[in-house]
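Dear colleague,

As promised, here are the two records you asked about, laid out in our usual form so they can be pasted straight into your sheet.

NAME FIELD: protein one
SEQUENCE, THEN STRUCTURE:
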Amino acid sequence: MRRYSGDNKKPSVTKIIILAAAATILFATVLDYFNIGHLLIRGPKTIVQLVTDTGLKSTNGRVNILLLGIGGEGHDGPNLSDTMILASIDKSAKDAVLVSIPRDLWAPSISSKINAAYAFGQEKDQGGLELSKKTLSLLFGIPIHYAVRVDFSGFEKAVDLVGGLDTTVEIPFVDPQYPLEGKEDDLCGLKIETQDINGVQTEVVKTASGSAIILSQITDQENPFTCRYEALTFKQGPLHLDGKTALKFVRSRHGTNDEGSDFARSTRQQKVILAFRQKVISTSTLTNPTTIINLAKTFNRSIDTDIADDDIPLLVKLGQKIDPQTIRRVTLDAGRNTSVLDVGDPTNYNGQYVLDPKTDNWGDLADYVQGEIFKLEEEKVQD
C-alpha cells in the first residue's frame, strides 16, 4: 500500500442546497453564492473553520468522499448502487480525482458485488452509508471520510428543474435492451413451464414458435422477453437531455460501438455530472429562488448523507478552489488492454457475473487505486 493504512441524519434545508451539488463533489459554489451569509452567522466556530481550514476530515492531506446513485422506490433492486464514484480531493484543491467503480466488482468483505453494500447496510443497524464506506475502505485500503447517496428519481427531477442538460455525444450508439420500469417480470405473453430434462425438473420458457429455452440460461443475445425493454438511440453531436433521457444516457448498459462497457458508461456519467454542475451554477439557476427552493425540496427527499453541518463550510471552501478542467478521471473496468479488472470465474462466485483483479491479487487492485490517487504527488517527487 502506498499511502493509506487501513450517524446518518436527515439533511437540513441549508445542507440540501450544497448536497444537491455535493452529489457531484464540485457543486459547493452554489451554497457559497446563495447561502454563505447564513452559514457565517452560525457562530465563531464556523468563522474559525473558514479562516483556518481546520476540522475537515482527511488522511494524508486528502478528503475522500463516496458518491452513490441508487434506483430508489419503484425500481428493481431499489437500494443497489447502480452508480459508485470515489472522489479524492487534495486539501489544497489543486488535485481532484474521480474513480468510477463498476457495480459488478466483487467485494470479499461482504461476499457479494460491491453494489449490494448499501442495500445490506440498510437491512442492518449499521446503515447503508456506513457499510458502503467500510466495504470500499477495506477493498482499496483507503479511508472514506464522507458519503452521499442520491436516488435516481431525485436526480431525474433535479435535471428537469434546471431546464435539462446540454452535452455532446461523441460516439453514437443504439441500446436495444434498456429495461422498462415496471416490466421487469412481464412474461410478454409467453409461458413458463417445468420440463424433465435429463432427469431434472427444469423451468423453461415456451416461445411463440413452440421452442423451449431454459430459464436459467437466458442471455442478452437470446432473450424472449422483448416487451421488458425499449430501444434507445443516441446520435453523434450536441444533445439536450431532459431528466428521463439523462437517466437513460447514464444507465444504458447494452450500447453498440463498445458503449455497453463499464468504461464508456462511466465516461457518460462523468459528462452528465459536469453538465449538471454547469447548469446548477449558471446565473439562470442561481437567480431563480423558486428553482433553488424546489431543488432543496427534491434532494431533501432523495439524499442520504453522513456529512455533518459543521463540515459544510469547509466543503464549500474546498469546492470553491477546484478547477473542473483539472479533475482527473479513473475508471475501473474490464475488457481493455489497460484494464486492471477481468471477468471472474463464475464457479468462484456462486455462478454470478463479477469483476475481479486481472492479477487475481486484491492487494494489486488497492495499490493501483492508491497509485492513481497520489499519481501527481509521486511524479513531483520523482522529478
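NAME FIELD: protein two
SEQUENCE, THEN STRUCTURE:
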Amino acid sequence: MVEIVFLVPLLAGLLAFFVAPRVGRLLLVITGAAHLGLSVRLWIARPEAMLPSFFGITPEGLLSLIVISLLFFLISIYTGAYLDQAKLRSERVFCGSMLLFLSTMTMVTLSDHIMVMWIAIEATTLASAPLIFSHQTGSSLEATWKYVLICSVGIALALVGAVLITVSMDVGQVDVPVAFSALTAVAGRLDPLWLKVGFVFTLVGYGTKMGLAPMHTWLPDAHSEAPSPASALLSGVLLNCAYLGIFKTHKIMQAAGLEDFSGTILIVFGLASMLVSATFILRQNEYKRLLAYSSIENMGIIAFGTGIGGLGAFGAMLCLIHHSLIKSSLFLTSGNILLGYGSRLIRDTGSLAGRMPKTLVAFFGGFIGIAGFPPFGLFLGELLIVIAAFRTGHHVAVVVFLATLCVIFAGFANHVMKISFGESGSDDPIEERAAMVWPQYALLLTSVVLCFWMPETLVQAISEAVNVPWGNF
C-alpha cells in the first residue's frame, strides 16, 4: 500500500527518541535505505492507496518522493560522521526529528486531498523546528521562533485558500471530493472568481513555506542556524513540498482556463524572489546564509518557469530536481567548512584548496552547478525556461530574468573565490573523512548524469506532471 512509505519513517522516528545515540545514527541509515527501496517500488508498481480519498500517486508527487528518498539516504550517511564532530546537545531529538521530518515530507508528496496536504505541510513545520534549535543557542532559538511563527501564518493563509476553493465548488454546484485530482477533472465547472481568490491565498500561504519573496524572511536564519544535514533537507526537500501545493493548485487553474491569471502571478513572485536574492547575495558575509539566498533565487526560477508554462514548466521541474541535488550537496559541504574553520563568516575562511582539497572539489563543483553551468542539469532546466519565455512573448520578463542571473553569479563567484583561494589564518590541512565527502560527490554526479541521460520513465513523469507531451515541444 502507498501509506507504508511514510509510516516506516514515522515509526522509526518515534523509536529514535528512546534508543542510544549510536543506534539512532544507524536507524537513520537503515530507514533511509528502506525508504529508498519502498519509493523505487512505488515508482515501478504504482499500487493503490489504502485510503484513496486522501492519498494517491501523481507524477509530480512521485518525482518529489524519489528525490526526497535519495537525498535522505545520502544525507543520513553523512550525518553519522557529522555527529561525531558536531557534538549536538540532544542527538536523540535530532535523529528522531530527522525521521519524523522524512515521514511528513513523504506524506506531502502522496497527498491528494487538499486538507490532508495542508495537514502534512503543517506537520513538516513541527517536525523540522527542533532541527533548527539543535545547537540550543540564543540565535538558534530566534531562528526557530521566526520559522514557526512566519510559516504558521503562511499555512493559515493556505488554509483560507483551501476553504475558498471549496466555496468555488458550492457556487458552481459541484459535488466531488475535495481532492486535487477530482477538482482538476471538473475545474471548468468551478466558480472562477472564488477560484482566483483561493489561488492567491494558496500561493501566499505555501509561498511563505517555499521561500518566495517577500515572505522569505524566515529562510536565511533557519538555514544558517540548523546543522548542515538539516539545512540540506530544508533547502533540498522542504521547499519542494511547499511548491507541490502551489503547483497542484495551479494545475486546477489551468484546467479551468485561468492559467494566464495564475501564471502571471507566479512570474511576478518568481522575479521578485530572484531580485531580492541578488541584492542580499552581493553583500553577504556568511556562507550558509549565502546558500540560503541562493535557494530563494532558485525557488524564484522554478516559480517563473511554472508561470511561463509548457516548455517552461518542464524546465521548472528539471530545476526542481537538480536544485535539490546540488544545493543539498552544497549545504553538506558547508558543514565540512564549518567544522574545519569553526566559523560561518566568509572572512574567517580561505585557502580551502590547500586545507581541504576534497571538500573544495565538492564545493566548487556545487558552485558551478548551482550557477547554471553545464555539465550540471540546472543548466538544461534554465535553458528551457528561457526558450519558453521567448516563445511565449515574455521578452521583458526574460531580460530581467537573465540580468538577475548574471548579477547573482557575479556576487556568488566573488564569495566562492574568497573561500576557495583567499588568504587564511593558517595553512595547516584539515582532516576530511570519506563519509563526509562522497555523499556530495554522489549528489553532484547524479545531476551530471541526468543532464546527459534521463530515463524514459523520468521524462514521461515530468511530461505528465506539466500536462504537455515531450514530443510537442
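A couple of things worth noting about protein two: The mean pLDDT is 92. DSSP finds 19 helices and no strands in the chain.

Best,
R.
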